[in-house]
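Appendix C reproduces, verbatim, an entry submitted by the partner laboratory led by Prof. M.T., so that reviewers can inspect both the input and the predicted structure.
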Amino acid sequence: MEIKITTQHILAVLNVIAWIIFIGVCIEAGGFLFNAFYTLAVKPKGAEFFWNHLNLLSLYQFSKSHFITELALINIVAILRAIMFYVIVKFLYDKKLDLSKPFNMELRRFILIIGYLSLGISFFSVWGTNYTDWLVSKGVTMPSVHQLRIAGADVWVFMSVVLFVIAQIFKRGIELQSENDLTV
């Protein structure tokens, strides 16, 4: 008995994986947002028991404005990741991928959106990493950038460049496909 794995099967598995990651990044973004509001509006001691066992009490005691800035950068990165996986899940759910004509504007637009989101994540990750390093140089005890979930900016830049190149290839493919359709 031969088991044949088709592109449709792989896309179905990727759809499930994208949903799992989407739910995870939404929980993480919600956790950071909730803890930020809880610490700022209800109980300042919440900075000691922040989302995912982070201790940001030293930062909160150092300066409330720096605390807000750091949390804003962390939340922006978390929200952009959630938006990215929402776009992926929506694209796969809407079944906009036409495998009979893979070079189409919908797919090119999807690749460009993911590329721009990757670029945004890398920008805010670099900003957050540099800001965290600056706070540490001022004597603030901070968790690592990995624990703050803002590490890996270089990977996001690399991913965005690759996606922009692929989008340009798709643009040329769409042009060639249109010329062939007009010729026939």
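The chain has one domain: 7-95+102-182. Additional entries are available on request from the coordinating office.
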